[in-house]
């Protein structure tokens, strides 16, 4: 069952060593998925920017370890977001944007120039009205963020030949709404020199470039003057609360054998005391046993000295065999990466419940083989699992497309290169793993003809390749190939169908269930689990859905629901749907899930691959 995470207080002072009254709080899990480093957060009537890792007040108690994920990301470990307990000041935030407006006198100027009673007073010194943060900010695809350039927006439109003595330092700006329309045309900015203009056209992709306004490379979450100078990316105007202002890039891994064992976790946590720093070889057996005795590992009923020494040697061997990962194939989906292959093999293997199995118990669902569920080869009940989720970086304007140039677009979480950790959370849950019949699957996906699954998915592949090509520069590969296959779309859609069905049967909201996909030429499995920090994650009972009778009923009911959608025939017959046209027969009435439940932001879905098309041209896997 999942554990409810503590809330993380946020303070306004971003200077380490100083403490201020907390402005608000968010859950720890939200520091990874919603309000992470570099994101904008509204606290009351104020707007702030979550500061970089350099300002985080973390302690040894906040440490997390997951060896496979550490190797994947090249980090020494992870830290939970500080909870603001035991003297910790929590997570620091910085005021952003700095530009505010007064709804009474319409003044538009930096917050510090309004003359409130004190530094944090959010009122206009002239009329006493509460101030409003600027609705508009500017950002680029490389993650840079800056104030909206109101003065330049006005004066760059000046007709050629007209002169003005106005300057940004002396100009007095005002912003007001005409009330004639709810569009941007009704928002007017005026300057004391007489210039005025509405905000109409501000959200056009090239509105800033058309006025000669470029990106200054600012990174205000790392400090007032942080940045990398000039930037050649196109500057885009965003609303302050827009989802496009922050797209997190997260990585996760399950704790699987041998790293799930309680002793192995202890050895990993104290490896600096047990391994030589230079070559990671085990220290002397005498020193190992001495340390184990000091930590109480050798107490009666715990572990023997032989078990401790064996665990230290196992960790040493695993770490010494680890080599830096080769350059990733950017045209491989996350579901096919090596870290998923290791998990898939373990999920197909029984790991009995034992007091020492801290984070992973996986057993075969009894009676599944006799039940002979059509199309299903294996069902495993994961009675206990632990997932570590880490925030790797983030982007703005456009989410990462996992292409060759994505590393250039990812924004840093810290300014100091000495910070060798990432923020992460670990959640405990349970789930059901199922894999499809490999023989039946190969026969289905290898069929030839105009209406076959391969032909249908070709539309998605073409749209995906066009999107990848649009995000690549000259340094990208000449050949662009989409990794999307009929097998992936089938398993992904099946996961969505079962989550929607289980949310009706077992009492969980769909947002409290998650999918984890395992798909390549040798894998065809999905893990549906409750690794959530919400209170709904404590209900239990998801593994009961893996019992043969219940699974058969839920699968039959899910397929029946997918055979018809309230948006049909438009939903089933469409050739382009979803974000960037990366879906086929999938909409909010039939397949889509909350974003927290889906690995791919609700794309690469098609229910026709499960149930077939009404005209029979495309056979469904479960038809």
From TrEMBL:
Span list, region Disordered: 1-25, 68-90
Origin superkingdom: Bacteria
Start-end of Polar residues biased regions: 7-16
Signal peptide (from-to): none
Name under which the protein is recorded: DUF1998 domain-containing protein
């Amino acid at each position: 069952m999942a554990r409810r995470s503590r809330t993380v207080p946020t303070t306004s002072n971003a200077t380490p060593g100083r403490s201020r009254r907390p402005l608000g709080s968010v859950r720890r899990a939200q520091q990874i998925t919603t309000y992470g480093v570099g994101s904008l957060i509204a606290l009351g009537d104020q707007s702030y920017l979550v500061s970089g890792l350099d300002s985080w007040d973390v302690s040894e108690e906040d440490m997390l370890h997951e060896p496979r994920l550490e190797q994947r990301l090249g980090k020494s470990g992870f830290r939970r977001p500080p909870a603001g307990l035991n003297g910790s000041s929590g997570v620091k935030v910085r005021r952003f944007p700095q530009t505010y407006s007064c709804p009474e006198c319409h003044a538009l100027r930096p917050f510090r120039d309004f003359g409130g009673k004190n530094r944090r007073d959010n009122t206009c010194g002239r009329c006493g009205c509460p101030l409003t943060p600027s609705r508009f900010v500017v950002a680029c695809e490389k993650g840079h963020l800056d104030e909206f350039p109101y003065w330049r927006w006005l004066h760059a439109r000046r007709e050629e030949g007209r002169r003005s003595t106005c300057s940004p330092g002396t100009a007095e700006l005002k912003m007001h709404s005409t009330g004639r329309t709810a569009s941007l045309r009704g928002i007017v900015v005026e300057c004391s020199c007489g210039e005025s203009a509405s905000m109409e056209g501000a959200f056009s992709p090239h509105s800033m470039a058309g006025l000669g306004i470029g990106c200054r490379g600012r990174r205000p979450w790392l400090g007032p003057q942080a940045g990398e100078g000039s930037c050649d990316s196109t500057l885009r105007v965003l609303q302050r609360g827009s989802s496009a202002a922050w797209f997190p890039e997260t990585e996760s891994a399950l704790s699987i054998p041998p790293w799930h064992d309680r002793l192995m976790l202890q050895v990993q946590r104290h490896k600096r005391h047990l391994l030589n720093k230079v070559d990671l070889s085990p220290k002397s057996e005498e020193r190992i046993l001495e340390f184990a005795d000091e930590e109480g590992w050798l107490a009666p009923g715990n572990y023997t000295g032989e078990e401790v020494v064996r665990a230290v040697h196992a960790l040493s061997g695993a770490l010494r065999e680890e080599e830096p990962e080769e350059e990733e194939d950017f045209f491989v989906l996350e579901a096919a990466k090596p870290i998923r292959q290791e998990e898939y093999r373990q999920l197909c293997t029984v790991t009995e419940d034992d007091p020492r199995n801290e984070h992973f118990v996986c057993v075969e669902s009894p009676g599944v083989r006799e039940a002979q569920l059509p199309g299903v080869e294996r069902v495993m009940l994961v009675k206990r699992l632990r997932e570590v989720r880490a925030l790797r970086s983030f982007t703005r304007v456009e989410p990462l497309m996992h292409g060759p140039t994505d590393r250039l677009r990812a924004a840093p979480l810290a300014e100091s290169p000495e910070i060798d950790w990432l923020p992460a959370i670990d959640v405990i849950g349970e789930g059901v793993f199922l894999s499809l019949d490999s023989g039946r699957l190969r026969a289905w996906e290898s069929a030839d003809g105009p209406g076959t699954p391969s032909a249908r998915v070709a539309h998605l592949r073409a749209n995906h390749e066009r999107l990848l090509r649009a995000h690549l520069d000259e340094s990208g590969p000449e050949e662009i190939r989409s990794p999307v296959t009929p097998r992936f779309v089938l398993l992904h859609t099946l996961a969505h169908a079962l989550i929607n069905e289980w949310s009706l049967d077992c009492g969980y909201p769909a947002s409290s269930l998650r999918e984890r996909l395992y798909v390549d030429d040798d894998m065809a499995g999905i893990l549906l689990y409750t690794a959530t920090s919400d209170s709904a994650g404590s209900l239990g009972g998801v593994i009961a859905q893996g019992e043969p009778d219940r699974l058969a009923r839920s699968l039959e009911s899910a397929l029946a629901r997918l055979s018809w959608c309230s948006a049909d025939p438009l939903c089933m017959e469409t050739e382009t749907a979803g974000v960037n046209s990366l879906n086929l027969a999938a909409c909010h009435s039939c397949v889509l899930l909350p974003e927290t439940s889906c690995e791919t932001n609700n794309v690469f879905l098609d229910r026709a691959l499960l149930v077939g098309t009404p005209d029979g041209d495309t056979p469904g896997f479960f038809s």
